[in-house]
């Protein structure tokens, strides 16, 4: 019996909520969002027809509150809830609660979620269904001695995995019997902390495995199909970095075998809706790893090669309809690749970043490129949630075309305000081994030196573009201050004219430990810049959005320079580079203070406070040291006085112009 859905509440946030609502609106459904206090102005709230607050910023007090979400569904008149992925998407209690409230859960039955929720129980079930398993121990007995003996039986190296979770937590590779007890204890502690359950399983560790997953779909009429496979082998710390479909090198025979195994796995638990059966493969063999009972982050690559909308399939199946296509009718055309753009700093061991997205350009304007995002320029990446900025998906007639488009899409992506993994992703896309589809889960570790090179000094091209941007900005500001009654006044040109000398301006930049002084000599159509590598003729035009069309010694190129405070971020030839402009006016302000207030000369970290409140100081005494780009900047006392107030502590991050302390007369 078909039960039409008219109003859909999306119990999630960010890009997945926006993506689900896009399809729901296309089907004519009314959409309802929920949001925490931190997400009041989020994109998914703006996209929805209605939005309801559900609690404070921490997920456990908002997006994980079943009662708050069901209350929002009742108030909005929603007759169905889509859980997205993450949060409550694989929570059997939530699926049960929806059913009890008379609301359609756009997902599998609670029984299927429970059956696949424990890795150990799922593998026992798969063994009965004849789905191939990695040799290992998946039993309930967790005696340390028994687990050690099972590891010996399996043969080292082995992999210890938390039974109740994923994402790399509670997962340890053990290469010898001597290392097993300590690794086991560590894995159990992590599992207990992350999932509240310290049960583990032990499996044979494959040394060069590929991670291949199969998209399955089932309806309530007994039909179940697979929509081909995805290769997710490129991972970092057991978390996916690049996903593509179909898997390179997959033969039709092997695809059929893996598809059948995935369908058998789904049927074994009475599945309904979208699910993903994950396999690990090495050589001619493949083994069941786990089943994710939800839509996956990487589902767009499957949509690209099949031409199907999987969220639409989910909604139709949830209404009681049969699957839109039979197995034989599902197409497979071309190749698609997805990468996840994260606010994280590869130079600091991929530390997640939080803060404002001052500038954001995503490559959705490119052909055959799709961008799924939940943020806009000006939004804040919060400490409370996953720091993903966007998913970038490209497609082509074949893999080579898709790889080229991936490089182009990443080259056209610009983010300022937060460190991201964009350059790291672009290095993967450009690597010869990636182009050759030499894929396994050790790809990043094997090529780490190339993918994560040591920081290098910026070159003359970058410095020239940064200098040109500053010079054009200064010219605009000078032009705006010219007396409107005398627009031809020579004072408005501000050329730095000197008697019997070339007109020039001196600019100073900081690049990590380097201080770079550049002299710009004015010429009729541009400048001659005295750069570290020699003189360069520079001319060009700058737009308000930071775009530059420049000629450097006659070579024409396009770039963009974004200024935030004194930081200049230069995007050129697919790379991004940061330098600091040392503005003499700001330095003067910091040195003299304003009404006794001393401010930070540039964004940075307080690394030393040389005074205490109430302390008397003399002119020139060091007060506070700010570190920016590994360079120390000392704020000194502009006169004799007494420290009235300190505004920050050592270790605090400060913005440019932030008041550091107040100095009063002694």
TrEMBL record:
Cofactor(s) needed for function: biotin
Gene3D superfamilies according to UniProt: 2.40.50.100, 3.30.700.40, 3.40.50.20, ATP-grasp fold, A domain, ATP-grasp fold, B domain
Domain named Lipoyl-binding: residues: 589-664
Alphabetical list of CDD domains matching this protein: biotinyl_domain (cd06850)
PROSITE patterns: ATP_GRASP (PS50975), BC (PS50979), BIOTINYL_LIPOYL (PS50968), CPSASE_1 (PS00866), CPSASE_2 (PS00867)
Domain ATP-grasp: 123-319
Pfam family, one: CPSase_L_D2
Keywords: ATP-binding, Biotin, Ligase, Nucleotide-binding
Domain (Biotin carboxylation): residue spans on this chain: 4-449
Protein name as catalogued: Acetyl/propionyl/methylcrotonyl-CoA carboxylase subunit alpha
Protein species of origin: Xanthobacter aminoxidans
């Amino acid at each position: 019996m078909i039960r039409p859905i008219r109003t859909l509440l999306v119990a999630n946030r960010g890009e997945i909520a926006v993506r689900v609502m896009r399809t729901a609106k296309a089907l004519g459904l009314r959409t309802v969002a929920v949001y925490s206090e931190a997400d009041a102005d989020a994109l998914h709230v703006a996209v929805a027809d209605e939005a309801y607050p559900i609690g404070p910023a921490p997920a456990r007090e908002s997006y994980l509150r079943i009662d708050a979400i069901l209350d929002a569904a009742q108030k909005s008149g929603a007759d169905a809830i889509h859980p997205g992925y993450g949060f409550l998407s694989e929570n059997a209690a939530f699926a049960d609660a929806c059913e009890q409230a008379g609301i359609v859960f756009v997902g599998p039955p609670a029984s299927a979620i429970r059956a696949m929720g424990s890795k150990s129980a799922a593998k026992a079930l798969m063994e009965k269904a004849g789905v191939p398993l990695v040799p290992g121990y998946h039993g309930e007995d967790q005696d340390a001695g028994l687990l050690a003996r099972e590891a010996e039986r399996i043969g080292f190296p082995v992999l210890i995995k938390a039974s109740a979770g994923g994402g790399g937590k509670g997962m340890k590779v053990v290469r010898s019997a001597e290392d097993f007890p300590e690794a086991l204890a560590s894995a159990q502690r992590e599992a207990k902390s992350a999932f509240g359950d310290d049960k583990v399983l032990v499996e044979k560790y494959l040394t060069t495995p590929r991670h291949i997953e199969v998209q399955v779909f089932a309806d309530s009429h007994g039909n179940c199909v697979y929509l081909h496979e995805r290769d997710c082998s490129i991972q970092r710390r057991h978390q996916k970095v690049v996903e593509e479909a179909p898997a390179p090198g997959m033969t039709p025979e092997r695809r059929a075998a893996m598809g059948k195994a995935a369908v058998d796995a789904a049927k074994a638990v009475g599945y309904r809706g979208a699910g993903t059966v994950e396999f690990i493969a090495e050589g001619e063999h493949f083994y069941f790893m786990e089943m994710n009972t939800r839509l996956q982050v990487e589902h767009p690559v499957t949509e690209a090669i099949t031409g199907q909308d999987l969220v639409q399939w989910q909604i139709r199946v949830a209404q009681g309809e049969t699957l839109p296509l039979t197995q034989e009718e599902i197409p497979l055309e071309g190749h698609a690749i997805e990468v996840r753009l994260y606010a994280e700093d590869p130079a600091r061991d991929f530390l997640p970043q939080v803060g404002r997205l001052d500038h954001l350009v995503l490559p959705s304007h490119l052909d055959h490129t799709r961008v799924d995002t939940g943020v806009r320029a000006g939004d804040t990446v919060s400490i409370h949630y996953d720091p993903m900025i966007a998913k970038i998906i490209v497609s082509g007639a074949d893999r080579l075309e898709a790889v080229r488009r991936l490089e182009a899409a990443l080259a056209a992506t610009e983010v300022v305000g937060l460190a991201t993994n964009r350059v790291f992703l672009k290095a993967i896309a450009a690597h010869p081994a990636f182009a050759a589809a030499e894929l396994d889960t050790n790809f990043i570790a094997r090529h780490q030196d190339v993918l994560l090179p040591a920081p290098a000094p910026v070159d003359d091209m970058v410095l020239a573009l940064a200098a040109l941007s500053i010079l054009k900005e200064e010219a605009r500001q000078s032009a705006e201050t010219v007396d409107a009654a005398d627009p031809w006044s020579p004072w408005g040109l501000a050329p730095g004219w000197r008697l019997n000398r070339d007109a020039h301006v001196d600019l100073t930049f900081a690049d990590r430990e380097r201080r770079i002084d550049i002299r710009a000599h004015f010429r009729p159509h541009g400048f001659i810049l005295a750069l570290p590598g020699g003189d360069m003729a520079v001319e060009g035009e700058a737009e308000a959005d930071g775009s530059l069309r420049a000629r450097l010694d006659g070579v024409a190129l396009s770039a963009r320079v974004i200024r935030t405070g004194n930081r200049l971020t230069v995007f050129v030839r697919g790379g991004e580079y940061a330098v600091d402009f040392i503005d003499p006016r700001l330095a003067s302000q910091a040195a003299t203070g304003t009404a006794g207030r001393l401010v930070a000369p540039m964004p940075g970290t307080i690394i030393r406070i040389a005074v205490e409140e109430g302390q008397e100081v003399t002119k020139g005494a060091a007060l506070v040291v700010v570190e920016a780009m590994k360079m120390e900047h000392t704020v000194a006392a502009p006169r004799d006085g007494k420290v009235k107030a300190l505004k920050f502590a050592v270790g605090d991050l400060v913005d440019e112009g932030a008041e550091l302390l107040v100095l009063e007369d002694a």
